Amino acid sequence: MDEGLGYKKDEIIGVISIFSSLYILLSLFTYNLSDPVIFFRTTMPESPTRNLGGLVGAHISGLMVIVFGLSAFLVPLSFISFGIRRILRKRPQKVYLIGCVLLIVSVSLILTLISKTFDVSFENYPDGLGGLFGKTIDYFSDKLFSLPGSYILSISLFILSIVILSPVSIFGIVIGKNEKVIKEAERDFTDVKIEEVEKDILINEPELNPLVEDI
Length: 215
Hints:
By secondary structure, the protein is mostly helical.
């Protein structure tokens, strides 16, 4: 009985996570800079909301873009994946959520560093490609590690997040492929050596004397 209730709970949480995330994705894709954002931006006089998520979607997407920049898209995608995992009852969920947080942090920092280094900007993202969150992390990482160190930190966190989120061992796949390539190369090398030895035997094999054959 308890197991059945637990499964129902996982299904409910999973479905809510998936469909709420789809709504947020729709709002992010139709985000418009002229729409109002609570605490940050108002429109005077009031104009029709352009966001397909309505006024609520405009506020949610606006806040997410201001805070996270382009990496805001990772938030609903992470929760969609979380919802699917919850329905399928895949464990552990906490480790997966840690991986999602690291992914968002690292991507926000990477986007901010790229924007700062190469002077890249988009009109719809006036607060930076990594948002205010990315700028905050960049400020502290630049103070502590400098620009090259910040790049190393962000890439390290990104790789770590991928390792955590990946259902299979990435390094295991790479090592396995390398071992397979090495074994194939060794086998090919052995086959070539055997062929060369056989050719040498055929070339060096003494011809029988015709007189001996007649006898």
